[in-house]
Predict the 3D structure of the following.
Amino acid sequence: AQSVAQPEDQVNVAEGNPLTVKCTYSVSGNPYLFWYVQYPNRGLQFLLKYITGDNLVKGSYGFEAEFNKSQTSFHLKKPSALVSDSALYFCAVRDTQAAGNKLTFGGGTRVLVKP
Amino acid sequence: NAGVTQTPKFQVLKTGQSMTLQCAQDMNHEYMSWYRQDPGMGLRLIHYSVGAGITDQGEVPNGYNVSRSTTEDFPLRLLSAAPSQTSVYFCASRRQGSHATNEKLFFGSGTQLSVL
């Protein structure tokens, strides 16, 4: 079975400082990995994905994530956080060897960027 | 572009009542799905569909029915509402197929449901 863990319920960071949101996963085969962001009272928006190729993936709004197969991690990073980055972030995984098209989400990490 | 449209945005039900959450997309996406979002539990897949006439169960299908008569619409029916179904419900769609560009879900803005 596929699963995702986001070990931090909330991350607090000062504006201008680096931001990291952690994610680890478990799959039987090869993973497709995703980050989505949810702003208040909105649906989720796609940030970035890892399918294959370069381990460092760049996405929207200056975010990037690094796929680390040995550590089964896919941490989301931003070099300099903005107050507008305050939101709920979800990591998700799809096991390419599992039947169906199911995407499993982590529990979410709330990011608070303080001015 | 409308994208994925969900109605209603808010709904309050009494235990035992039934209702249908509507979802429509105008992107000609083959794949559509319903998730529920509960605090600390992320999003859990209820049902999904890979095309008109085809539906399948996700992680938490009990108490919900779906149908897919057209490509555009994917309604979610609560047969007899229970307090445990109090949640925020999201519909999402994407293109079907194995190409990597299809691996991106588009979400509606959600329906906040309270069952008393």
